[in-house]
TrEMBL record:
The keyword Hydrolase is annotated on this UniProt entry: yes
Taxonomic placement: Bacteria, Bacillati, Bacillota, Clostridia, Lutisporales
Protein's name in the database: Predicted glycosyl hydrolase
PANTHER family recorded: CHITINASE DOMAIN-CONTAINING PROTEIN 1, CHITINASE DOMAIN-CONTAINING PROTEIN 1 FAMILY MEMBER
Source species: Lutispora thermophila DSM 19022
GH18 domain segment(s): 236-552
Length: 562
């Protein structure tokens, strides 16, 4: 029996030794000689086109860049033009051109972007500082990309050892033995093993006991230009008002001071056609008046609220560039402090292109020292025109987002109601804050009120309305003397009267309603408030807003004041 057991033991040892020998053979030739490879971090990328390698320069397919490096990269197929954006840089390249444009200034390229078999390829070394990546070419066939923001962990081999395919003892080797002291890039720990990458781009696993972790650093990107901060008031929150200009600017000699105001935003610019021509109603005298009174001027630009024109200019890279150039020239000419984009009535299909336009405008505004803001509607499932805003993405391409918290019941609404109920405003504001950081949100408030008229026609109630200023509504109320009650849900006074067989209804915007709405700025720690539009308010409005935005500092004071 003892001899039998000894034989079995010897057989087991031999078998074990055989298994160990077989599974320890170097079994893998990692890279074929007739292919190029892309490595990004800890992975060999196989789901996109392989790189082009030309005279030592690496060109990555646009698909590889967009999927694995920069999701905001944009390719204009019609113009064969690629666009990259960061907060500070706008980079454009046209295929087969040895010049790229960086913030609209020409920069020479060593190799051009090109299209091969219908696929655009981009010289990646030129973009390494912009995209914060490290680029390396190994053996003229392997492009290795590492993000410079990532922590770099390296290890030195304590003894001669090969790398295994998996983190198991009997896994086959994927390299010949590495030499003692060789360095590898360490990516993760799996039990008692490390996943590593050799200097020539081979991945594998090695036991902890054979590796000395001796370096852990964060590779910093190259020094950037000084950070440009958007406008912030010296005290409290932003207080802004829109100035409605159709053709003629207001007579500044007749304008009164507005307590606590920081910014005026006149509606001066409009994209008037699909070719990108921008109309200009700016007035230097208005700018001088504003600056003299301590107000910043953010020139407002619209899309003429025309969805077809907007579709045409948003979907052409050159046309977007033309519009942006005009806005920047006007901003410099009239010494503006910012630009406010008010693009409305846009097809949902153009949602991504609207975001792209803002991404392209943002770095150029920053370079010119302009604060960029954008007006958006509330998130509303019932409104077709609210679906064109990717608010989360847009928030990354602007300094501030002004939320137009009004027109709950709009001009042609089939039902009479408040322009902006307090509860409606707060409820929708919470939805916005799920997508946009509070410190970027400016709450838009109405200085206007709608007078609703209800008339029975053929047995049905016909509803019409007209927007009136606060003083015009008060004049009507003084004349008609209806009963005025406080409506808790709307946070407004409500009045109703009958005349000529018609019923008139009004939810009144006044100092009390504006006090409630502006209190939301501090309640949710927003960037500030804006109002549409100057001239529709009564004089008692400005002290109310100033008290909420400027004079109430501590949370206990805010709670007591509101």
């Amino acid at each position: 029996m003892r001899k039998f057991m000894a034989v079995l033991l010897c057989m087991a040892v031999l078998v074990a030794g055989t298994v160990f020998y077989i599974t320890s053979i170097w079994t893998q030739v990692p890279y074929a000689e007739d292919k190029n490879y892309l490595i990004i971090g800890s992975e060999i990328i196989t789901d996109v086109e392989e790189p082009l390698i030309e005279n030592g320069y690496i060109l990555l397919s646009f698909n590889a860049i967009k999927k694995h490096i920069d999701p905001n990269a944009y390719w204009d197929e019609k113009l064969e033009k690629v666009v990259f954006t960061t907060k500070d840089k706008l980079i454009t390249m046209k295929t087969d051109k040895l010049t790229a444009m960086v913030n609209q200034k020409p920069i020479d390229l060593n190799v051009p972007a090109r299209v091969v078999d219908g696929i655009p390829y981009i010289p990646i070394e030129f973009l390494k500082d912009i995209l914060n990546i490290h680029v390396e070419l190994v053996d003229d066939t392997i492009a290795i990309i590492d993000f410079t923001k990532d922590t770099v962990v390296t290890g030195g081999l304590l003894k001669e050892r090969g790398l295994k395919k998996d983190s198991t003892l009997f896994s086959p080797y994927v390299t010949k033995p590495l030499q003692e002291g060789d360095k590898v890039r360490v990516f993760q720990q799996v039990g008692d093993w490390y996943k590593v990458r050799t200097k020539n781009g081979i991945f594998g696993y090695i036991e902890k006991q054979y590796l000395s972790i001796n370096e852990e650093t964060v590779t910093e990107p190259l020094p950037q230009e000084a950070v440009i901060e958007p406008f912030k008031p010296e005290k409290g929150k932003i207080n802004m008002v829109w100035e409605h200009v159709i053709k003629k600017n207001p007579d500044v000699s007749k304008l009164k001071a507005m307590e606590g105001l920081d910014i005026v935003s006149p509606t001066w610019f409009a994209v008037i056609d699909g070719k990108g021509n921008v109309s200009n109603n700016a007035d230097m005298e208005y700018v001088k008046w504003a600056h003299k009174n301590g107000y910043k001027v953010w020139g407002l630009a619209t899309n003429d609220f025309n969805p077809d024109i907007t579709h045409e200019f948003l979907n052409n890279t050159d046309t977007r560039e033309k519009i942006i150039s005009q806005l920047l020239v006007y901003a410099k000419l009239y010494k503006l402090d910012g630009i406010n984009i008010d693009f409305e009535n846009i097809y949902e299909k153009d949602k991504n292109m609207l975001t792209q336009f803002m991404r392209e405008l943002y770095p150029l505004c920053r370079e010119q020292g302009l604060t960029l803001s954008m007006d958006v509607t509330f998130i509303s499932g019932s409104s077709t025109w609210s679906k064109c805003y990717d608010r989360k993405a847009l928030a990354e391409a602007v300094d501030y987002m002004a939320v137009m918290a009004y027109d709950q019941h709009w001009a042609s609404s089939p039902k009479a109601g408040s322009v902006a109920q307090y509860k409606w405003v707060e409820s929708n504001l919470k939805k916005i804050l799920e997508q946009v950081p509070a410190e970027k949100v400016i709450l838009g408030m109405p200085f206007y009120t709608r007078l609703w008229e209800e008339e029975k026609v053929d047995g049905k109630v016909k509803v019409t309305s007209k927007a009136l200023s606060m003083s015009a509504i008060q004049k009507i109320l003084d004349e008609k003397k209806p009963e005025i009650i406080w409506d808790e849900e709307s946070g407004q006074r409500y009045a109703q009267y009958t005349e000529g067989g018609k019923i008139y209804k009004v939810w009144i915007e006044d100092a009390e309603s504006i006090k409630l709405k502006s209190s939301l700025v501090n309640k949710y720690n927003l960037a500030g408030a804006a109002a549409w539009r100057r001239g529709f308010e009564t004089e008692d409005i400005w002290p109310v807003i100033a008290k909420n935005l400027k004079k109430t500092d501590s949370s206990s004071q805010r709670a007591q004041a509101n």
